[in-house]
Design a protein that fits this description.
One of its GO terms (molecular function) is integrin binding. It is found in: Cell junction, Tight junction; Cell membrane. It is a single-pass type I membrane protein. There is one protein chain. The chain is an alpha+beta fold. Among the domains are: about 40-145, Immunoglobulin-like (Sandwich); about 150-245, Sandwich (Immunoglobulin-like). It contains 4 helices and 23 strands. It has helices at about 1-30, 30-35, 250-275, 280-285; strands at about 40-45, 50-55, 60, 65, 75-80, 85-90, 90-95, 100-105, 110, 120-125, 135-145, 150-155, 160, 165-170, 180-185, 185-190, 205, 210-215, 225-230, 235-240, 240-245, 300-305, 310-315. The chain has a 6-stranded mixed β-sheet, with no helix packed on it. Strands 13, 15, 16, 19, 20 and 21 form a 6-stranded mixed β-sheet that branches.
Length: about 325
């Protein structure tokens, strides 16, 4: 009987020990995350950095992986440099997204008509009072791309050979910031002239960020039609083509022109000198004042009349 009792105790002990290890194995194989999910609200998103083109639809996903509270409080905030502002509060869309966004259950924010001002960071906040971890949040960085508008291009109409020239291109509406390409006669100008046989002898620098094309020394071959393209991830826009002419400087003509001017000035100077020597200018001055006042005699006074220019004697005249 004692042997039987011992055998019964051994079987019972073995059973409890086996069951205990079985429970441990189950708990060990369970993910730690699943255990905590039962006690906490946990959020996740499908895309932390979504993007869309202007006027298109975009979803900012805020998914609740686990929660115990039946009616959690859900809020969305827009975060910019000046601070956060509500776009969804008390179950209503407000602020910048009013009439342009809706909430898709449980907490995803859907913008139906995105604009460039919507580019910002957005924070989804969920508060669950009945959970041990009652609060969680995720931040989503939204980018709304804007297609460039037609850039303003400046191309000089004519440039002399050997002189420098600058072509400029500017567009300020696109987002992200536009990059620039220049074309000559509808063919793209490479950043490095040595990379193309057609532009191998050209001397220029091209800045794709600022849109400037600078010729260090223009050649005759640089003449042609130029236009610029502004582009970003949303699209591109081009300005109309403008013609740049390159002309030679006529050095011989310039020298001849200078000589002619010098000869003309020399002739005028010689003529004036000759006129002075012959008295032409001095004769004209004396013609208007050629009368000489007669000297007074002893005891005689003369008075000149205004109408005749002669003299009449005063009463003191002595014969």
């Amino acid at each position: 009987r004692l042997k039987a009792n011992c055998s019964s105790v051994d079987h019972t002990t073995f059973f409890f020990i086996s069951f205990f290890f079985y429970i441990l194995c189950i708990l060990y194989t369970l993910p730690v995350k699943s255990y905590f999910n039962v006690l906490a609200v946990v959020l996740r998103t499908n895309n932390e950095s979504p993007w869309t083109d202007e006027f298109d639809k975009i979803e900012l996903s805020c998914l609740i992986e686990s929660i115990s509270t039946l009616n959690p409080r859900i809020e969305w905030k827009k975060i910019k440099n000046e601070g956060p502002s509500y776009v969804y509060f008390d179950k209503k869309v407000s602020g910048d997204l009013e009439n342009r966004a809706v909430i898709r259950e449980p907490a995803t924010l859907v913008i139906t008509n995105a604009t460039r001002s919507d580019t910002a960071k957005y924070r989804c906040e969920v508060t669950a009072p009945d959970d041990q971890k009652s609060f969680d949040e995720i931040v989503i960085d939204l980018t709304v791309r804007v297609k460039p508008v037609m850039p303003k291009c400046s191309v000089p109409k004519s440039v002399p050979v050997g002189k420098s020239a600058e072509l400029s291109c500017l567009e300020e509406e696109g987002f992200p910031k536009s990059q620039y390409q220049w074309f000559k006669n509808k063919e793209e100008i490479p950043d490095d002239p040595k990379s193309s046989s057609k532009f191998l002898n050209s001397s220029y620098t091209l800045n794709a960020d600022s849109g400037t094309l600078n010729f260090i020394a223009v050649r005759k071959e640089d003449a042609g039609e130029y236009h610029c393209r502004a582009k970003n991830d949303a699209g591109y826009a081009e300005c109309p083509a403008q013609t740049m002419e390159v002309y030679d400087i006529d050095i011989v003509g310039i020298i001849l022109g200078v000589l002619v001017v010098v000869v003309v000035l020399l002739c005028i100077t010689v003529g004036i000198c000759c006129a002075y020597k012959k008295g032409y200018f001095s004769g004209q001055k004396q013609a208007g004042n050629n009368y000489k006042v007669p000297s007074k005699g002893d005891g005689v006074d003369y008075v000149r009349t205004d109408d005749e220019g002669d003299f009449r004697h005063k009463s003191s005249f002595v014969i």
